[in-house]
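Ligand-bound model needed. coenzyme A.
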Amino acid sequence: MNLRSVGIIGTGKYVPERVLTNEDLEKMVDTSDEWIVTRTGIKERRIAAEHEATSDLAYHAAQEALKAAGITAEQLDLIVVTTVTPDMTFPSTACLLQERLGAKRAAAFDLSAACSGFIYGLANASNFIAMGTYQYALVVGAECLSRITDYTDRNTCILFGDGAGAAVLGPVAEGRGFQSFELGADGSGKELLKLEGGGSRHPASHQTVDDKLHYLYMNGREVFKFAVRVMGNAADEALKKAGKMKEDIDLLIPHQANTRIIHAAIERLNLPEEKCVINLPKYANTSAASIPLALAEAVEEGRVKEGDTLLLVGFGGGLTWSASVIQW
Ligand SMILES: CC(C)(COP(=O)(O)OP(=O)(O)OC[C@H]1O[C@@H](n2cnc3c(N)ncnc32)[C@H](O)[C@@H]1OP(=O)(O)O)[C@@H](O)C(=O)NCCC(=O)NCCS
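Prediction:
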């Protein structure tokens, strides 16, 4: 079977207006701007308005991506939303988005792979197009992490923000587009990063709320070690599968969780810092939204040129990791 070349033909992003700075957090928990900046690189993050939910953020990013791709919502065959903060358990956020966009022909589902989700979504959707099953797909990473963050816990509340990034996928010139995917999971790390409340094991109850199980839990130190190791390995594997060398990379777009983790990846790949997109100081960690948000911003700023080799790499809860090489 002849597979078609598939690539990203349009990107978009959306962040809520409200800014929560480190100084704001100093008034909420025992922390300091200095601690947050030196340990994480984060300066501020965006917080969704009360009336906004994940599908609203996704909608704005998707509209921008459709416009950039030059197609209408009705031309979409598939919508994949990757998120750990869906509007509700079901229907999926993808179905809510499908209706709002008026993407009447599109199949729609959510994909859960935490911060690795966007690249998992790209791998998934691109296969449908490569096979010729579909022509156009929309992949959105969108999160309202502020809704699952405990703003009395200084270990986690400084790290996360809200936002959305989107990409329209379609057929591209032969040899262009996605060159490789490297996806992985290690469920033995399930306790390191989790939200237990409200699922079938711990259905929502007064007790789960009292125990704060509706908030994200993280073992930061262990996740840090895992992230440094896995970012490098996933990047190496994706490059190898694509037949590329480290020197071929024009732009690295890593998951935005901590500048120290990003710098470890830059060092391992032997890259100058200007070849890496870092918007973490403005938005903090937006989980599944972080990579598409960084990609859309890089495109907007003219940092992505035709023919460039991009390396996307992410890691997150599960534990999971993901990487992809793209010839733009
Ligand atoms: C969370 C993280 C920033 C903490 O940095 P760290 O250098 O590992 O810090 P430690 O966990 O060693 O904590 C050091 C101390 O700072 C304290 N501390 C934690 N949060 C703090 C805050 N916001 N302000 C001030 N002090 C804080 C801790 O209580 C600890 O104090 P103790 O030694 O008295 O117990 C870091 O581990 C990290 O980024 N981990 C990965 C997180 C991540 O990427 N998550 C998303 C995955 S998708």
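The CA atoms of residues 144 and 162 lie 5 Å apart.
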